[in-house]
Amino acid sequence: MxxxxxxxxxxxxxxxxxxxxxxxISISSVLELDVQRRKLMTEVETLKSNRNTVSKQIGELKKKxxxxxxxxxxxxxxGERISELDTQIRAVEDEQTNLLLHxxxxxxxxxxxxxxxxxxxxxxxxxxxxxxxxxxxxxxxLGDKLGIFDFDRGSKISGSGFPIYRGLGAxxxxxxxxxxxxxxxxxxxxxxxxPPYLVTRNSMKGTGQLPKFEEDMYRCDKDDDLxxxxxxxxxxxxxxxxxxIPEEKLPLKLCAYSACFRREAGSYGKDTRGLLRLHQxxxxxxxxxxxxxxxxxxxxxxxxxxxxxxxxLGLHFRxxxxxxxxxxxxxxxxxxxxxxxxxxxxxxEVSSVSNFEDFQARRAGIKSKINGKNxxxxxxxxxxxxxxxxxxxxxxxxxxxxxxxxxxxxxxxYMGGLERIEAPQA
Length: 426
Hints:
By secondary structure, the chain is an alpha+beta fold. Helix content is 40%, strand content 19%. The protein contains twelve helices and 14 strands. The strands form four sheets. An eight-stranded mixed sheet has the order 1-7-8-9-12-6-5-2. Strand 8 and strand 9 form a beta hairpin. Helix 3 runs antiparallel to helix 4.
């Protein structure tokens, strides 16, 4: 959430910059409510101050045995007016907060101008495109032949977008997750967390999924008002909601594997074949709580972790800096990592790494004491990595002419030394 004090100081700037992230909310509407709220606050504070003064006078009159009935009646009316004003203030504050919760974060000045993915900037590319000397098979068909995916039974159980990994496919998926976690915890110093998969509405609000994106979320139908997590970012970030993190612990680095659940309400007409677009998928998430003066250095660091995983898997990829209009709601700056799928003949996003600055921390109340003063921390997160499209790229890249699938070398220790997956014998 943006700082209303800063909006007051430069409303034209905030209107211009938030519009670049496709916000339709008028900053002037927010400020009109702010003026109304402050006017009401001034009136109620004046009344409360006067009431306190008169209350002392009433006490003195009673001590003297004098009649204070008239003054007490007047104060009763003042009390009723204060109650009315308090109700009005809460209503105005709720309306203002609701508007603020729907306004996106400001894009960082280093983000390119633009509105569409075509205006994003490729900042670096690693590896070379894989070529085959045979006619390769797309991952869904390959997975069926190898017996490692079962999309039909997944659909029977839960509908489309809920794949089943089976046999060596399940083991390969687990190997990817374990490999990612081991790199984060043993090499890069993350603390591993096993988070809840259900979170409160307040937690979803803290990281920016709500209220704006509720239609994309899976909400429980009962009165507990819990949501299935769209990413482990939500529970990891909210672990420190309404808390102070000691400055010496920054950056605080957490990682977690979780299943992720998304309705993909806006995905009608998009390619939903196989593992390309799912309602449930697996991902290892990284979350940083950063010192405000160092968060952009940390941002580059966390991007390098995701890049290193793809290099170790031997997959051709590129790193893209998103333009202001293509960036997510809460991000100030965002890099996407896209892996090349040679059979699909296109780039597939496998990681999105964002710096939110204090946008989430203001919502969730996450602070530190820096130079002796209370300050909001900066939060960052990124995928390290999401497995479905990595699996697609592995199937595209490592399949062989005989129909087998070679296992990337770094994953073989997690597969009991197995070097390839072959089709089961009839």
